[in-house]
Amino acid sequence: MSSRQSHLVPDPLPVYSRWRAGPTSFGPVGRISITLVVGFFGWVTFYAFRFVDGPLVIGDVGIYAVGAFFVLRHVWKRDRVA
Length: 82
Hints:
mainly alpha; elongated; 2 strands; two-stranded antiparallel ribbon
């Protein structure tokens, strides 16, 4: 090993977090806010279709639920912070 290699500092291990903001993510306030907004719109969707029967309700609420799942999964994904 040469003297040049002995002075190299290894890169620190990457740190991932859901609660600290990363370069492409929100901190806890942003993530909780997005979750509340998604929940509110889910409630509005359910409330708007509560008196309607049939496949339209299942389709609209079901499509919203699937979309909300993917949005919240992306929002709450652990992101590299350091």
